[in-house]
Model the fold of this input.
Amino acid sequence: MAAIDRLLQLMLEKGGSDLHLNVGMPPKARISGNVIPIEDGIMSASQMETYLSEICPERRWKEYLDTKDLDLAYEITGVARFRGNYLYNHWGQAGIFRQIPAEILSFDTLKLPEVLKEFCHMTEGLVVVTGPTGSGKSTTMAAMIDYINENLSRHIITIEDPIEFVHPKKKSVIVHREVGEHTESFGAALKGAMRHDPDILLLREMRELETIKLALGCASMGMLVFGTLHTNNAPKTVDRIINAFPGDEQNQVRVMLAGCLSGVVAQLLCKRQPKGRVAVHEILLKHEALPNTIRSGAIANIRAIIESGKNIGMTTMDWSLMDRVTDGSILAREAFMKSSNKQAFQHLLKPGELEEAEH
Done:
């Protein structure tokens, strides 16, 4: 048993999702959205090194010492899997470990919008799942891949750093590839994937220009590509993809993206009542007006496309927030804090809550 196992299990017992380790501080965990201590002891530099090095292969440990950053997966057999991120900060070595649910949660369990199944039945194009760190993007994508695996016969290649959800054998053939372990980089894996006859590619993150460029290329070649970005809504997602390219390439990218973008799912997590968290979504689907909007650079018009497509399942984040307030899942104050149109929620706040929210 590794020394860190005790802390990871303590975090799980307390209902936490992420373990935060920093030198000079007690171990902390994110529990119902808040980062709080889970025991009193202050961590020393030598303790930290033991916790991190003990569960890290020697080759990867050397990589961490050289580059100061590392992502890896760790499993406590029979308990849970975790995605670990090693880093250096002002106090020295540090680590953050996020629990990966042992069971891949289904559409029904997560209460995902039914319209997301439309993306699963597509045969080509780019589908981007977006949201800030910790918003549940990976869990939502895993549910979508599981739905495909359960219902369709597809060849799916996932390219991840590290591998998070391991999908069991069902109807589809799923090949998991880990950057640093099975391939040198996202770019190298994507280039290889083009020759591996995939129906679906899943990219855990479209971080770099090369990765975004190759993802667009694969989607344009007739593959269905799922990828994630750290943006908060559909218009910002389109902007982020275009602006990742140099100015002299952006017109060409607009044309390419206009031809292959099949949809955007933006996701946020809110504090559920009385406890836990619940996802809210903004959903952009394929629409006849979307390609020309992207080609012409009129990105602000994407909001109007979503609003006009409510009858086919499109939704804005504010509509989704209002639905969760109406059904009692979240408080009006939480919706107000997360909304883009504050005035739509202001009248729902109790006396004094507006001043409190603004501070």
Remarks:
- The CA atoms of residues 190 and 314 lie 30 Å apart.
